[in-house]
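Today's session is about reading a structure prediction critically. Students often jump straight to the picture, but the first step is always the sequence itself: look for stretches that repeat, for charged clusters, for runs of hydrophobic residues. Only then move on to the predicted structure, which in these notes is written as discrete structure tokens rather than atom positions. Here is the chain we will use throughout the hour.
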Amino acid sequence: MIKLNLSVRGGVCIILCFFLSSCIIDVYDELNENPFEPLVLHEGDVAVYTGQEINLMYEGSSCQWYETTSADTDNGFAILGATANTLTIKNIPEKSVKYFYCKSVLDGGDRKTSSPFTVANTGLVQLRIETLGGEEPTCKKSNPPADWYWGKSIKNATKVPSRVIMMKGTHKLYDSGDYAENESGATIKIRGNTSARVGMRTGKLPYKIKLEEKADLLKYSRPDRKKHKDKDWILLNTSKINTKIGFLVSELCGVNYVPACDVVDVVINGIYRGSYILTEAVEESANRIALDESGYLIERDPYYWNEDLYFSTPDSFNAVVNYTFKYPSSSLLSPDNENFLYIQDYVRETYASIEIGSYESYIDVDSFSAWILAHDILGTSDYAGSNIFISKYDSNLSPLRMECPWDFDSIFNRQSAFASIHVMDMFWFNALFSSENKIFLDSYKKKYSQVRESVLEKTKKELKVFLTNYAERIDIARKLEQDIYGFEWEHVSAEISHAESWFESQILWLDSAINALQ
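Below is the predicted structure for this chain, in token form.
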């Protein structure tokens, strides 16, 4: 059994309390049961409130406790009757940060002021992970084999048995139970490439959660959505609006499958790790990218050198970007395997067909135009690590289909310009746009005219909802992250304001730029 250890480690400990929204949520039999033991904080510690009592302990002589709205210990007001070494906190209002400190009377009459105790209530959903024995996931740096390869990655990421609990206030939204292989619990590991390397430097790491039993961790956020029970879930080490907006624009542009996501607070082994984006993983699945058992899901991958198996096309960038496998697993393939040879040859034939303008039987034109239109609207500057996922439903007559855009770190960067991958030869889009065969260009133009108004209307609406429901909560979480990691943080309202201006300006530019394409 995994014991929930709530001791303070590294000076930071957290338990969270969240606002129960008006939407209907499914809860477990333990309705209103808080599964966490009382929390004890010591001088200088940080906690996020869960609706349970928190005891602030000062290890000194008798003292007077003070409350303040900042970490400044000169401007607090004395709490009446709070003169013992322990102060019990029974309630922290939602979306607030409070500081407590005490002044003790020492021998000789000198007074000592404690470092402030920080207690916050972000109002975000909490995803709590308790690993077996308190083990922390680890990985090693993986550098490319030569300087001219792109990107740095990780390897040997450990899979750590865990229990996963999601809380909204005192309501338990999900509990995986203790780890038992193929039955309950989960494993957690560090994931990503550049994001993992950045996380290794800053301390805020991205993770992949694999449940032993399928579940929908996000059903609380969209009660009307179809059940998407699955095992693989991603924690992106960011709370920027980019991912939610990127997925929204992709959906509006008609991308076949778009992952659900939400902003959550993450706690691992009692230690607050900050606010993250919890999202579905892009993978072959009946609930995500549904393929025939003879189908394929591949990635145009600048980190291919870190994989056991890959293939190339005869283009000018095949030294630094090639194709790796997400389905089937590369462990089931080999360079002389007929399944490997089939998809390799088909992709190479597709590349050749685009070069000569006879591509329409090789690619799903609608999915290709939807993918690049989303990036053009979003102004993506990344042209290599933008996570190009391509599927083929089966080993028969199905064409290649572009799957969901994923990496939105570099959106809102190319104002009054097409996305970098639109105009560069890194992938096939520049050739498709310049081809004498206008089927793709016609599809792209038609799609833009169909989605233009809805992009303006629905992104504006979503940004307003995000400002109302998330901005203040995320700002609190970011303030705590600043104390923990030393990050400089921006108010969410500033991100939203920039995004609103972006769409107004970019759509106006695209109106004339797309009309001029021939």
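Discussion point for the tutorial: Confidence is low (pLDDT under 50) at residues 1-32.
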